[in-house]
């Protein structure tokens, strides 16, 4: 149960499909860790200690390949943030289905967010370097109940279209058309994995600085210094697995195995 105001729940899904090589995998995890410790991002995360942000991170590829890297963690202070970034930097890649089940990845992230129902805002950040090629398509999972009342943003990794008139038909256009949804949803772009950290900083700042200063907790009326939704959480227990219910009549049960 959540025992304090929750400013924002932020679930981050990282693409580890076959198109992501070992070096790019590290750029993605280490880039997220570095982005979280960027001074401006850290300030935004810690702006309202009375209603902290909660973060969870998972990786995804094929229809049954999702792994929880960081379980829900309340970012109440620098020590909590350091625990998250240390986990990201220490995580090792494990064998996974090389396909790209983007629709399933959205449902998995939404089910993580469903564990934080009391947060003022719930945001799924999905990173990807390609379109879905297996499982339900992103545009076909919108009816899943867990996707209601959340915002899905994207960090798209790949070359931009040279001709601006073709942007809508490229990968960025694909994510903007079929993936992002909800209030204020947007897609950020990184030309390569080397640019992932800078793009993640931009995206996190847009997400974390978007609430009004002096926000009021609608439940308890508490006056806070800053704003954005979040919920209480704990660090992952690597010894256990968290099982999620299946996508109805489409995929096998979704299990988020915690990485060792």
Description:
- There is one protein chain.
- The chain is an alpha/beta fold and 260 residues long.
- It has one domain (8-258): Rossmann fold.
- Helix content is 26%, strand content 20%.
- It is built from six helices and eight strands.
- It has helices at residues 22-36, 39-45, 78-90, 102-113, 171-178, 196-208; strands at residues 8-15, 53-60, 66-75, 122-128, 151-157, 187-190, 241-244, 254-258.
- An eight-stranded mixed beta sheet has the order 6-5-4-1-2-3-8-7, with helices on both faces.
- The relative contact order is 0.23.
Task: Give a quick rundown of the structure.
Helix content is about 25%, strand content about 20%. The protein has helices spanning about 20-35, 40-45, 80-90, 100-115, 170-180, 195-210; strands at about 10-15, 55-60, 65-75, 120-130, 150-155, 185-190, 240-245, 255-260. It has an eight-stranded mixed beta sheet, with helices on both faces.
């Amino acid at each position: 149960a959540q025992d304090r105001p929750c400013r924002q729940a932020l679930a981050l899904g990282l693409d580890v499909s076959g198109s992501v090589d070992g070096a790019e995998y590290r750029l993605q995890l280490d880039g997220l860790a570095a982005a979280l410790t960027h001074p401006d991002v850290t300030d935004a995360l810690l702006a309202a200690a009375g209603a902290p942000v909660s973060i969870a991170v998972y990786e995804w590829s094929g229809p049954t390949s999702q792994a929880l890297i960081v379980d829900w963690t309340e970012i109440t202070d620098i020590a909590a943030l350091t625990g998250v970034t240390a986990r990201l930097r220490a995580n090792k890649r494990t064998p996974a289905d090389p396909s790209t089940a983007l629709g399933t990845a959205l449902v998995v992230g939404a089910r993580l967010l469903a564990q934080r129902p009391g947060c003022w805002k719930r945001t799924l950040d999905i990173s990807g370097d390609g379109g879905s090629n297996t499982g339900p398509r992103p545009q076909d999972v919108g009816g899943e109940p867990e996707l209601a009342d959340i915002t899905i943003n994207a960090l798209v990794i790949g070359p931009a279209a040279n001709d601006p008139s073709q942007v809508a038909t490229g990968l960025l256009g694909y994510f903007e058309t079929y993936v992002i949804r909800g209030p204020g949803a947007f897609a950020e772009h990184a030309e390569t994995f080397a640019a992932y950290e800078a793009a993640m900083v931009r995206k996190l700042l847009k997400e974390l600085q978007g609430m009004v200063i002096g926000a009021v907790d609608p439940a308890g009326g508490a006056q806070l210094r800053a704003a954005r939704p979040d919920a209480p959480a704990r660090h992952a227990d690597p010894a256990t697995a968290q099982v999620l219910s299946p996508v109805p009549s489409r995929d096998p049960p979704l299990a988020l195995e915690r990485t060792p």
